[in-house]
């Protein structure tokens, strides 16, 4: 899964690594909130479905399009509708990342720090 950016997990992080982890955490929160609203709005996404596997992309796409229309139109959403997305968490196993993906993560972390995008508490 080379396309998944994962936070640094070892002890004694550098400022660059710490800043990267903070940004990843912010992005993860935004993503979880978006999926929470999406699942809250469309109940069929909250549970296992009886939809045929080959039809699932169409149903998911329709839910996403309709959800985005609701978001653009500032459609009210009751907080009770929000759905916990803890079941969607993906844990990447240690050693599952390629050297290329680790190098890409390091380059992104370096860019964030040196271009004022890290927002780290150290500064």
Automatic annotation (TrEMBL):
Top-level taxonomic group: Eukaryota
GO terms, molecular function: metal ion binding
Pfam family, one: DDE_Tnp_4
Record keywords, A-Z: Metal-binding
Residues covered by the DDE Tnp4 domain: 2-68
Cofactor(s) required for function per UniProt: a divalent metal cation
Protein name as annotated: Putative harbinger transposase-derived nuclease domain-containing protein
Organism field: Medicago truncatula
